[in-house]
Amino acid sequence: MHKEFLMGNEAIAMGAIAAGVDLVCGYPGTPSTEVLETVAKHRPQDCYVEWSINEKTAMEVAAGAAYAGSRVLVTMKQMGLNVASDPLMCVEYVGVKGGMVVLVADDPGPISSQTEQDTRSFARFSKVPCFDPSTAQEAYNMMEEAFALSEKYGTPVFVRPTTRVSHGYASIDVKDAAEYVSHRPEGFIKDTKKWVIFPRASFANHQRIEKRNAALTAEFSQLRFNRIEAETDANAGCRKGIAAGGISYTYAREALKELGNVRLLKVGTPFPFPEELALQFLEGLDEVLCLEELDPVIERELAYLCGKHSLHVKIRGKLTGDTPSAGENTVDSVKKTVAAFLEKKLTEGSSLDLPPLPVRPPVLCAGCPHRASFYAVKQAMKGKKSIYCGDIGCYTLGNAMPLDMVDTCLCMGAGLGIAQGVFHTEPDTSCFAFVGDSTFFASAIPSVINGVFNQADFTLVVLDNSTTAMTGHQPHPGTGRTMMGENVPAISIESVLKGIGLTCVETVDPLDHEAAVACIKRVAAQQGVKAIIFRSPCIAIAKPAGKCAVDEDACIGCRTCIDEIGCPALTFADGRAVIDEGQCTGCGLCSQLCPVSAIAPAGKEARHE
């Protein structure tokens, strides 16, 4: 063993490697992304890694490998679990041979997600066992246990870190390479009774799953990740207890350092719930405070046990209004909640009395080609009845003023379907659906086919910046490079669209404003499903062409450059436009909009009359 300073996601990845993982696949999504990237960086030679085109495909790839005896890890965020749920539910009924761990990083807050979803609740719904780490070290340790449990019972197993576990750093005890589990897949053995899902087999397997989970409630009561931490002598006889899981357990421990220890139940496996251990915890208590993110999972389980065993213990938490029903917990919020529960006063100055952080509204980066794309569509459709259906990615930020070009945003790929629904309701509306290049491959293609088949009329706008930008520039089928570092033929978006029936597909550089506007007017006038591909690389992967410059003598202070596109590199001072050279990438969009040509493109002099 040795120590390494690791992010929680890195610890999870290193735990999987130490557990002998053979295949890792997933789809990028904050806060889960670094898990797969870390495996790719440190993987043994016989470990295969891929970014799949979406979570459903990743789950199916992993299922095939697990059927063949591989230890597999599938990574995603909580929103991705929705996409992966179809194969996951069936895999739970069919079972696996090699260990399958499904890493789902939840995002309380939410910090970077559409919804607050709790994978612990999904675990109960899907009947899949779930591990809930409270620290980066525990997340590392849980990986080996999760793989072993998966193989022992032939079931997928969830590991569910939340954002603060995934992205927190700590000094971790990790195994040396010589201590890694040595695993060799047996290979796929044909057995149609096992691997072909039929109703009769599913009925029998459902019974097996229920019996297994009932047995796991007892087994998990003995697992090291679940435990009771007793009160100290100073608090002996206290009839109050605290139950916590995940990062909230760590916060509870921190709070009790100041407020005095009470009996504390740590729940590391929220499903199946460790009932025997929980009953030991409840014995002799009058009240229990439950601390958890996000759903009242522990609270409901304890309340159920009290009713089942006629225990007169008041269970307090989200359902009783003692803890917030939404959002993430913090050290300070937990400390205040625990102090109120224990009827104790916090030591003066115990919490950092800091001013609120400044508000930093989300905005497209300076020089982002998406800004030029949105602005071109806005100008081309000015005065026409239009709807702009957005999607998940950097381009969601096109909703910000002054662009105001995202009227709807639901989930990945949904903009295409929404545009079709609006058209069928209001045929006189010009409908646009924006989607990124990565999302196009992940979830947009079926909706394009649906539109062609059902004779819809809308304009698909593919914002192709040659990467998966928002989650950290991961490769996708259009980039021509895999996560294994292999150069492969890039899949052409134009060819895909033409292959499924589109006759009008045009590609244009959004940073050529005049050409982009003309293209939009031309394409939008066509009937049926048509597409514009705005192709320009993300400024994070393309070298800047230099800086634009303002001719102070020529600038008339009209603010057109600032008020029209909202580029963060543009400000206004002393009645003139000012370019922040630290942010400007020289994209030149502002120079094309200036009515008096007072802004020079990168490497050129301003042209003014």
Give a description of the structure.
With 609 residues, this protein is α/β, with parallel strands linked by helices. It has 4 domains: 220 residues, Thiamin diphosphate (ThDP)-binding fold, Pyr/PP domains (Rossmann fold, 3-Layer(aba) Sandwich), CATH 3.40.50.970; 116 residues, Rossmann fold (3-Layer(aba) Sandwich), CATH 3.40.50.920; 167 residues, Rossmann fold; 52 residues, 2-Layer Sandwich (Alpha-Beta Plaits). It is 37% helix and 17% strand. It contains 20 helices and 22 strands. The strands form 6 sheets. Strands 3-2-4-5-7-6 form a 6-stranded parallel sheet, sandwiched between helices. The chain has a 5-stranded mixed sheet with strand order 9-11-10-12-13, with helices on both faces. Helix 6 links the parallel strand 6 and strand 7. The chain is globular. The termini are far apart.
Number of domains: 4
CATH superfamily of the largest domain: Thiamin diphosphate (ThDP)-binding fold, Pyr/PP domains
Provide the β-strand percentage band.
Answer: 15-25%
- How many β-strands, per DSSP? 22
CATH class of the largest domain: Alpha Beta
In what order do the strands lie side by side in the largest sheet?
3-2-4-5-7-6
Average of the residue pLDDT scores: 93
Largest sheet: 6 strands, parallel
Distance between the terminal alpha carbons, to the nearest Å? 72 Å
Summarize the structure.
By secondary structure, the protein is an alpha/beta fold. It has four domains: 2-221, Rossmann fold (3-Layer(aba) Sandwich), CATH 3.40.50; 227-342, Rossmann fold; 369-535, 3-Layer(aba) Sandwich (Rossmann fold), CATH 3.40.50; 549-600, Alpha-Beta Plaits, CATH 3.30.70.
